Amino acid sequence: MRLSLLNKSEKENRNDFQTMERIFNAATARNQAVIVTARNRDGKSVAAVIIVWGAVNAYFWQSARDLSCGVGGVNAMLLWKSIELADRMGLTFDFDGYGSVSSAKFLAGFGLSPLVRTEVSRQIVPYKLFKLANGMMLKRAKAGAELRA
């Protein structure tokens, strides 16, 4: 099965697929990753999520969905199945955060207690400049690697 993680054009996409593949392969080699897939009635894969885990937590790491899929609730079903999987393994399930009130309400509907995490909401100018410079260096390194390939 291959679902695209490209919700934007390749030019706009910021996923580092080579690194993601290395992480997934390393986790799979340690039996610490699984792909949970949703299929339509015809057996076609319409959505998937990659779950990775360690000794204590399971993480909702990457997800993808066929944008032409008209099945409502497919993401919620995959999320629920992921929670069940973590529970069967005796692990805490980590949704990997959420960025909006509507997402928080959606996740609260699963009946689990949220855990508060510290979040940086403001940054001083030197840190912003560091992030900008670091991003530029990573972009340059990626472009150089693509030229060598």
Report on this model:
The protein is of the alpha+beta class and 149 residues long. The protein has two domains: 1-115, Aminopeptidase, CATH 3.40.630; 118-149, no CATH class. It is 40% helix and 19% strand. The protein contains four helices and four strands. The chain is globular.
Fold blueprint:
Elements: H1 17-29, E1 33-39, E2 45-53, E3 57-65, H2 74-88, E4 92-94, H3 101-108, H4 125-148
CATH superfamily grouping of the largest domain = Gcn5-related N-acetyltransferase (GNAT)
CATH class of the largest domain: Alpha Beta
Shape: globular
Radius of gyration: 18 Å
How many DSSP H or I helices? 4
| Biggest sheet details | 4 strands, mixed
Based on DSSP secondary structure assignment, what is the total number of beta strands? 4
**What ranges have pLDDT less than 50 throughout 5 or more consecutive residues?**
none
Q: Looking across the biggest beta sheet, what order are the strands in?
A: 1-2-3-4
- Give average pLDDT, whole number: 79
Structure class = alpha+beta
SSE succession: HEEEHEHH
Residue share in β-strands: 15-25%
CATH arch. level architecture of the largest domain = 3-Layer(aba) Sandwich
Distance between the termini: 26 Å
Number of domains: 2
Based on the model shown, name its key terms.
single chain; 149 residues; alpha+beta; four-stranded mixed sheet; Acyl_CoA_acyltransferase; transferase; GNAT family N-acetyltransferase
